[in-house]
Known about the structure:
- This protein is mainly alpha-helical.
- It is built from 5 helices and no strands.
- It has helices at residues 12-23, 29-41, 43-60, 67-73, 78-81.
- The longest helix has 18 residues, at 43-60.
- The chain is elongated.
- 0% of the residues are buried.
- The mean pLDDT is 87.
Amino acid sequence: MTNPTLMYAIYEDLVQSASEANVGRELTEKELKRLACVLNDSDGFSFTVYSAIVSAVEEAIKEEGWEEYDKTHENIPLEKIV
């Protein structure tokens, strides 16, 4: 792939919300900086993300139920969708 396109981003507010809900507090700036390293080094996370991508692909290739979404997004470039 010579020209990769970002398909998904994990935003800080999602991480902070998950952290607050599951460990009782938001992460510090230092902890947020560590998070990228932890996510890249985690085999479990990589497998979970890969499984989520496969599930998403299976849903995206279904033809039924996408008519309104497709019509709304047909003239929007992919990089503007994410």
